[in-house]
Amino acid sequence: MIVNLSTTKKILREFDIKPKKRLGQHFLIDGNVLRKIIDIAKISNDDNVLEIGGGIGTLTEVLLRKANKVICVEYDAKLVSVLKELFKELNNVVIIQADALKYDFNPLIKKHSINKMVSNLPYNIALTLIFNMLNKYPEIKRYIVLVQAEIGERLTAKPKDKNYTAISVKMSLISEIKSYFKVSKNVFLPSPEVDSKVIEIHRKKFCYEDLVDPILDLEEFYKMISFL
Q: Does the keyword Metal-binding feature in the UniProt annotation (predicted)?
């Protein structure tokens, strides 16, 4: 398995990978954390799973053992080469180089019947990406993601919590969210500056326009509540 310190270092050395802080590249090296994430995700062979930020395949490897298919989107061209080399013998993986914040996932979702997303999200795009996915792609009902702890706390905060902000309001409008456990910064290589958190998000089954005047654009509504 990739998810240990020695194998991670070996892959980084063999492929001459130098993790880029600006891209939020921190590779998980703790197998217990990975197993917990997979248990929470409840992956079955009926699932076609989207993974954003495949890295060196730490999570991808385990998802491929459980899911019918894994569609992995990675921004870094060098890491895409690593992923393609590591999983070249498998026929249930699709690896795509793309900027997840700009990519149109609709054709991909329809082609592969994607129903779930499981990801260790790069810190630099996590919050924006989560909202983009929830707003634009109703076919994906369930998300299990590893995010920066502070972001996880803001997303899951309830009224009167100290972390309750406009972000918390936005999340409650479009999803039901559950916080699971904190992940120490020491189980990543290189170590980030802060701890992480595993959260689960269920997209609500309503049509947004049923709840808010259709004249009011979703983004305009978000701007309005940002003053709360």
A: no
